[in-house]
Amino acid sequence: MAGDGEQEQKPEETLEEKLVAATPAEERGDKSMLVKGPTFELAGHTYRMRRLGYTDHSRFAGILQQALRHGKIDLVGAVTKGQATELIQMMVELVLGALTYAPNELFGFLASVLGIDRPTILDPERFPFASLPMVLTKLTEHPDLQDFFVEIGALIEGRKAQLLSPTPPSSGPPISSPDATETPTITS
């Protein structure tokens, strides 16, 4: 940690990061393996949001659920439209709703994603009031979070298509009933 008068230095890029940056995107393969969280500078410190995993998504979903309960946000509509501007706007609205209805959970989540403790994110010297929109915007720009909403949209659309499509014919043999002329036999 840097002292009060010192500037924290940006983390030095690893060899792997330099190679990834030098390799054209189409040659890199699966982009999800190369995703980095957004980086920003604030009050003399550099922060990089870490990758998000399954526990982060379930934690974030719990926060959003609280926001959705109180807000008037059409999550399914925004997610299934698939338009990036509408999706980002919906994510901003959801995060603002979370700020209103689940602030403790949201700040705990942000602290975890930034790799800092809760008192640090609540310190106005490190995270001044005016920085909150920028930090929330960086969260909504996180590639893992955006990919999550895109995939959820595809899942919802696929489920809608399944529910609306006619039932395909059964591929198994028809179920036969005993012929009226046959007498069922009972064995003991």
What Rg, in angstroms, do the CA atoms define? 25 Å
β-sheet strand percentage: under 5%
- What order do the helices and strands follow? HHEEHHHHHHH
Q: Treating each run of at least 4 consecutive H or I residues as one helix, how many helices? A: 9
Number of strands: 2
The global form is: elongated
Stretches with pLDDT under 50, minimum 5 residues: 25-29
End-to-end separation in angstroms reads: 83 Å
Q: In which order are the strands of the major sheet placed?
A: 1-2
Overall pLDDT confidence: 73
Major sheet size, sense and barrel closure: 2 strands, antiparallel
Share of helix among residues? Answer: 40-55%
Secondary structure category: mainly alpha
What does this structure look like?
The chain has 188 residues and is mainly α. The protein has a domain at 39-159. The chain is 54% helix and 4% strand. The chain contains 9 helices and 2 strands. The chain has helices spanning 15-22, 25-28, 54-70, 75-81, 84-101, 103-114, 118-121, 132-140, 143-164, and strands at residues 39-42, 45-48. It has a two-stranded antiparallel ribbon with strand order 1-2. A hairpin with a 2-residue loop joins strand 1 and strand 2 (45-48). Helix 4 crosses helix 9 (143-164). The longest helix is centred in the C-terminal third of the chain and has 22 residues, at 143-164. It is elongated and about 85 Å long.
Helix and strand arrangement:
Blueprint: H1 15-22, H2 25-28, E1 39-42, E2 45-48, H3 54-70, H4 75-81, H5 84-101, H6 103-114, H7 118-121, H8 132-140, H9 143-164
Antiparallel strand pairs: 1-2
